[in-house]
Description:
Elements: E1 9-14, E2 22-23, H1 27-32, H2 39-43, E3 49-50, H3 53-72, E4 76-78, E5 88-90, E6 95-97, E7 108-111, E8 114-117, H4 133-136, E9 142-145, E10 184-187, E11 190-194, H5 198-210, E12 214-218, E13 229-233, E14 236-239, H6 245-251, E15 260-262, H7 277-281, E16 285-286, E17 291-295, H8 299-307, E18 311-315, H9 320-323, E19 331-336
Parallel strand pairs: 1-4, 8-9, 11-12, 14-15, 17-18
Antiparallel strand pairs: 1-19, 2-3, 5-6, 7-8, 10-11, 13-14, 16-17
Amino acid sequence: MINNSFSILKEIIVGKELNIPTKMVDFTFKHFFRDNLTVSQYNAGNENISIDHNILKERQDDLDTLAATLEDLGIIVHRPESVDTLIPIKTFHYTTYMAGAGNVRDLTLMCHDYLIETPVIIRSRVQENKLLYNIFRGLELIWIKAPEPKLEELSTDTDDWRIKKDYKSLDLKGYDISFDAAQCIVYKDVLVINISNINHYLGYKWLKKVLPINVYYVEFTDNHIDGLLNIISDRVFLANPQLKESEYRAQLPSEFDDFKYIFPEKSIEDNTGFATQGGMDVNVLNIDENTVLVNNDAHSTIKVLEENGYKVIPIQLRHNKLFAGGIHCSTLEINRECI
């Protein structure tokens, strides 16, 4: 059972980069990573992205080391099934290929007694969770799969997320319910989901119907919230300085009014990957309320956490921006001590 992100960790899944050095590029991929692409990249044709085998091997090695480190800490660790060849995926609406299983956080929402497979946003990920089913079958949870999206252009809201919408006044018919689990924060009896388009808003409405807890939405960023905020102990956020404390507080529900914010220094950004370095720096994993796994390159994060009394375990996880996944993205806890 999971109702927080910082109590004693008992059991977890660690992602596995598949032996597939190719990223499938289509409109869903480009729309998802829009903020990290140049205008010319976004408007270009669908040319798949090749990843150097040495880089892929380094990423695989680092995830293996992360899994071994967690096991050494006494935590039960599971891994996805392996895939060594491109697997074609064909639906009524498109054809694509499975491309990875490294960011296991993204597609499964663990919330209290619920395991929710979220309605995937990128086409090449629609079968990814199948590599976790042998793990899921052993869990005594209420297992729900959200409505499967068509992932057509007409059913996807592709407007720039900075264009704010009054969702209650819009005609939402014809749009997919589509969102990632990594857009959500679970804290006790509260879930907050970051939304940036009609598809996400429909996901928010669906979660409100499904879950027996309070569900709210915020509009902080284009997609995932764990590159902005992570709750690292009771009433404490580790926060990306991309936004100010006042901006976070203005949107979060009253249950978070008395939270403390810890900010590392702002990272210098570049355009060499599909995620921001600042997002990766706060993308951490708690072992318990006092112990945090942090990427060993996130020097400012390590410093500010230690200054605030946390024990930091530095972990090497290279190529975070290229694979769009830090330590938090690459892991999915399936059992923590409840608070």
